[in-house]
Specification:
The chain has 581 residues and is mainly α. It folds into two domains: 212 residues, MFS general substrate transporter like domains (Growth Hormone, Chain: A); 244 residues, MFS general substrate transporter like domains (Growth Hormone, Chain: A, Up-down Bundle), CATH 1.20.1250. The protein contains 20 helices and three strands. Strands 1-3-2 form a three-stranded mixed β-sheet. A hairpin with a 2-residue loop joins strand 2 and strand 3. The longest helix is centred in the middle third of the chain and has 32 residues. The C terminus is likely disordered.
Amino acid sequence: MPGPRTPVEPRESGERRPLLERRPREPRRWWRAAAAAVLLVEMLERAAFFGVAGNLVLYLNSADFHWAGEQASRAALVFLGASYLLAPVGGWLADVYLGRHRAIALSLLLYLAASGLLAATAFPDGRRSFCGEMLSLPLGPACPSHGCLHTSPTPYCAPTLYAVLLLLALAASSVRSNLTSFGADQVMDLGRHASRRFFNWFYWSINVGAVLSLLVLAFIQQNINFLLGYSIIVGCVGLAFFIFLFATPSFITKPPTGSQVSSMLRLALQNCCPRRWRRHSARDPPGTQLLPDQRSPQAGPSPQEDIANFQVLVKILPIMVTLVPYWMVYFQMQSTYVLQGLHLQIPDIFPDYPANRSAALRAQGSGYKIPEAWLLLANVVVLLILVPVKDHLLDPLLLRCKLLPSALQKMALGMFFGFTSVIVAGVLEMERLEYISHNQTVSQQIGQNTYYAAPLSIWWQTPQYLLIGISEIFASIPGLEFAYSEAPRSMQGAMMGIFFCLSGVGSLLGSSLVALLSLPGGWLHCPEDSGNINKCRMDLYFFLLAGIQAATALLYIGIAGRYERVAQGPASQSCPRRDSG
């Protein structure tokens, strides 16, 4: 089998090209096959990722593990945060040591191993092998009196599950940070129009993977069993790995070219601790201060360009940091929103098929439940519908009227919609707790677990999911646009890594806030519920998030306004933007 293609590099006039480098300009079937393989791999990987994230709270809150509600939400936030926070690690390894092709292949292999370990925890023998035995602590209703208080048990199998989730997060983040640019490499010789079309189809493949995962895998996990659902995830990752290896001969690959991360860290150290840096420089012999990516024989940015790039980074970073509270709100969609939905009344899909139900389920009048994770489809559908409408109708209209907002203004609008989403969630939680306080609960069977829900339909959660989807259009997408367009060309990859990293910081801060409020006396400390949240005050948690988002939005408006005034002034002429470098 022939090896991967090499990119066409410009050469001096009169220098002959080797035959291998002419191959990318041969028939179009090569780039079509390469691009199609990348899109299919991305779709399968996203299906696997959402298959883990969509129902993770339900899995940990189930009778197999008996994690408390806040413990399961915290684990989901850690997983989501790590999957973004670790993105620069995979990108740096690819830039410095592995190259993108090898980094993606190794990441998919790690993905396959970690998803297999997660599936092993879904059946009794696997849990006993990796986690040991568990003391039986069945779910129960809220305690009617204060005399039944007991401490929250230590989460069963926590070390194993956290290790597996972090391995999955590392693999997913490495694929995310490398597959996008690797796919763009396959069509780079065909012009900007081909690149733009590739990114449109790449975004489409992400959402198709999410839809398939939420429709099929979420239903199987909730209504059949998690072992089958996680086995399908292993199959998706294995198929993605096979397709990527099989398509290798059609790929354009690039060797590691080095990274500017080391230069930025060195300049940051020089500015923060100049005396310590001078002592360190005087003590080390020449050449030893160079990290592996700086020893590359290929030409890189000059020291003057490094300084200019660092100055741009210092200007952009405060704006990106003020987005962190938005990400705290955004990731509630796959954690506390899910936990709230499990305690609302979920309708049956097939309520009148007694032949397909056990005697216990027939006695409770319960059939297949609509998967709570299906409400995440509201977010996906909003993106699939509104992104083309905004791109083809709304933006051109506003541009003709000279009313098109800048990327920074759109990000402020996205923060407003995120604030509105969490306010709506808080109001709904207040109404749910009002029913609970009057002892109006509904016992519902979800899989093998019993939840004591308020007699409010889960469809009341739809507005908060729609609002968080709209906020993503105005905050996340313009945020990527801002980070890419304002960065110097030589730092665009690093800036994407920083953007995803700060997204992960927001999720981890949300997890830390949940942990803090779960301490004795906190709003989320309700050990007497043993898996339910009917004695918690999650409404106050939502309103606290709204307050944090509102405060940082005001700070963001001040920082963004100052940035735009400076950019429009004469000083902006000397700023090294993306075309400089």
